[in-house]
């Protein structure tokens, strides 16, 4: 990669697994080196300096911990006399990861300020404009330019299934998760071939479900953050190799996993945030193969309860130090609306990435063979609070129509939504990846 003025590019990735994945994919394509320790080898830096002097841009891969604790690299970047650019991958981890990780991520801002005239580039597949504002607040710097590219794989179908429609007809997720034979039947019927990830947010439930399925002769491996590094490596290697086909995991598996065999995800319950939803469903169909992402829901986690929780956490968010804010609360409301109100998941994802998207016919999807056809997610969902939800706890038909219009952000004159979509559809080019062909929602 020749250039009139070579640049030292430091790529920051939050996970060792991601770092290894970067190296594997890029080592034969660009001039890239990997920094694994806090004390960098003098020969490595000498080699980097040689390439820069010969107008060859160099990429150095580091974790946040390595960069924060590597004075050699910081001093080299400051004194080498070449432009320096920092690329922070998976930037959404700054607001979305647990508080135990945030201190290290926030220290990056101080580390980068140590390098004068450097550039910082943030990249993420699941970052929203509110998150960008959050990161600006964390770093104390305004992000000058924001580029967004809306991306949803055309080959992925998103499905919401009420738990009572699954084998056994259970009324709650807890009862279904305890019925290992029913789960095995469901997974085999839905995904007869290739690899699948079963997501559960609770680590104890991951252990219980994995043990129960293995106990009835249905082979699975498990994966969560409390496992030993060797245990994670063995489990991941087995699943990536296709034996077994199923892995039961928390969202710990949602970053840095690239399986050519993965054709499905099953979330037992709503994902804990839209960050996790985007990352988790991003594991499937990475080679263009038809894939399906299923969310299994029940009524145990109600819309009202969710609104109340979010309102509580957001009341004084601007006055809380950034080191202690648990992110994702506002996005949970949109995700709950998507699953509980049977809205269009891809439309919700687009709205999350770019709030400037306005209500428009091309963002409406037809729910095939269903009576309730109006689906979508728009900005007014975010304003729904406990008071609004409780007002309509037992709504009349007119109140239901009003609530639907408020939630969808539709103009009141659009009374007959199904016919409106039907009549408009022939006149439109659905350039947002043909939502109506990608969505199924079961009663």
Fold and architecture overview:
- The protein is an alpha/beta fold.
- The protein folds into 3 domains: 132 residues, Rossmann fold (3-Layer(aba) Sandwich); 142 residues, P-loop containing nucleotide triphosphate hydrolases (Rossmann fold); 139 residues, no CATH class.
- Strands 8-9-7-10-11-6-12 form a 7-stranded parallel sheet, with helices on both faces. It has a 5-stranded parallel sheet with strand order 2-3-1-4-5, sandwiched between helices.
- Helix 12 links the parallel strand 10 and strand 11.
- 37% of the residues are buried.
- The C terminus is likely disordered.
- InterPro entries: DEAD/DEAH_box_helicase_dom (IPR011545), Helicase_C-like (IPR001650), P-loop_NTPase (IPR027417).
Topology:
Layout: E1 8-12, H1 16-26, E2 32-34, H2 42-53, E3 58-62, H3 64-68, H4 71-79, E4 84-88, H5 93-96, H6 99-113, E5 119-122, H7 129-139, E6 156-162, H8 173-177, H9 180-190, E7 195-199, H10 203-215, E8 220-223, H11 229-240, E9 246-249, E10 262-268, H12 274-281, E11 291-297, H13 303-314, H14 329-340, H15 345-353, H16 386-391, H17 397-408, H18 417-425, H19 435-438, E12 439-441
Helix pairs in contact: 13-14
């Amino acid at each position: 990669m020749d250039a009139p003025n070579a640049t030292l590019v430091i790529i920051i990735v939050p996970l060792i697994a991601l770092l290894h994945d970067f190296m594997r994919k890029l080592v034969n394509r660009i001039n890239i080196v990997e920094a694994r320790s806090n004390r960098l080898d003098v020969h490595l830096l000498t080699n980097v300096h040689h390439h820069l002097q010969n107008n060859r841009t160099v990429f150095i891969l580091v974790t946040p911990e390595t960069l924060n604790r590597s004075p050699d690299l910081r001093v080299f970047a400051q004194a080498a006399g070449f432009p320096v650019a920092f690329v922070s991958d998976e930037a959404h981890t700054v607001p979305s990861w647990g508080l135990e990780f945030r201190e290290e991520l926030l220290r990056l801002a101080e580390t980068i300020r140590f390098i004068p005239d450097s550039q910082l580039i943030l990249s993420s597949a699941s970052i929203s404009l509110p998150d960008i504002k959050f990161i600006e607040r964390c770093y104390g710097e305004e992000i000058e330019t924001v580029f967004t590219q809306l991306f949803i794989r055309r080959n992925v179908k998103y499905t919401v299934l009420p738990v009572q429609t699954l084998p056994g007809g259970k009324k709650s997720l807890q009862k279904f998760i305890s019925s290992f034979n029913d789960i095995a039947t469901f997974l085999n019927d839905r995904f007869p071939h290739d690899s699948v990830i079963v997501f559960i947010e609770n680590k104890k439930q991951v252990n219980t479900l994995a043990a129960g399925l293995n106990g009835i002769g249905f082979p699975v491996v498990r994966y969560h953050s409390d496992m030993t590094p060797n245990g994670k490596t063995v489990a991941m290697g087995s699943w990536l190799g296709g034996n077994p086909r199923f892995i039961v995991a928390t969202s710990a598996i949602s970053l840095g996993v690239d399986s050519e065999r993965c054709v499905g995800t099953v979330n037992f319950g709503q994902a804990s945030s839209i960050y996790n939803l985007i990352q988790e469903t991003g594991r499937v169909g990475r080679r263009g193969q038809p894939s399906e992402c299923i969310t299994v829901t029940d009524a145990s986690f109600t819309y009202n309860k969710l609104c109340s929780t979010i309102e509580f956490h957001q009341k004084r968010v601007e006055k809380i130090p950034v080191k202690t804010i648990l992110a994702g609360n506002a996005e949970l409301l949109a995700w709950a609306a998507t699953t509980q109100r049977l809205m269009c998941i891809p439309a919700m994802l687009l709205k999350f990435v770019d709030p400037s998207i306005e209500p428009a016919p091309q963002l409406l999807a037809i729910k095939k063979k269903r009576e309730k056809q109006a689906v979508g997610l728009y900005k007014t969902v975010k304003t729904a609070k406990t008071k609004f939800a409780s007002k309509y706890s037992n709504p009349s038909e007119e109140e239901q129509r009003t609530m639907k219009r408020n939630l969808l952000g539709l103009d009141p004159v659009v009374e007959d939504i199904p016919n409106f979509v039907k009549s408009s559809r022939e006149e439109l080019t659905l350039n947002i990846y043909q939502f109506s062909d990608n969505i199924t929602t079961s009663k």
